[in-house]
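Handout, section B. The chain below has 260 residues.
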Amino acid sequence: MALSDSTEIHQFICLDDNFGVLVHDRDSGTTIAFDVPHAGAYEQALEETGWKLTHILITHHHWDHVQGLGELKQKTGATVYGPARSAQKIAQLDRTVEDGDHILCGPYEVKAISTPGHTLDQISWYIPSIKMAHTGDTLFSLGCGRVFEGDKEMMWSSLSKLLRELPDDTAVYCGHEYTEANARFSLTIEPDNADLQSRAQEVSNLRSQGKPTLPTSMGVEKATNPFLRAAEASVATALGMEGKSAADVFTEIRTRKDNA
């Protein structure tokens, strides 16, 4: 996928349903990897593209995002960045970041956005110059991550931050191909949402052809993702929660998904 005259993005499946993502700048030779679920899958992708890995950006400490990190770093010599709260859990980090920090990866200025909830250390990475973000396991297409280490109010706060910070035309990549199941659940929350109905059909068509449903965009997610839409009066009404806070509505949606 070409985003500009010099930028390309390559997305590929790792493990069963994890995504690997590479961002490459042809002019400088910079290549950024987001998370490393499986070193072999990244090595194959780098061989196929002919790119040399220069940077690795980690979203959080879960094994299915970092288990290939040590091997890939050793083989490529790439510089590894990750959340400061992961420093004691991920030995391979070269530099750590806090919320709002900016790092330079070749020509790309990358912003670290702290989005805890799924884990306490979760970072979403945003590259404004190419209108691209990687949200790890915080924001999925038509969904959000399970709340393991934080609480639901924390997760809603993180999603609200992404709503504020990522423009509608931001291409959103994330950690997993969960969209088809998320679409089925989303329709139980907003069955009359025409945008959601259209997106669910699109997702079904893509998956029937073996194609990925990602990247998505913030504009699409704002219109269709019930977890992002918890502050919308129509969603509260659909759940019989008129007058309740957005955090309460989100908590109800997340609880329903947990029990689905």
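Note. The chain has two domains: 7-173, 179-259. Compare this with the example in section A.
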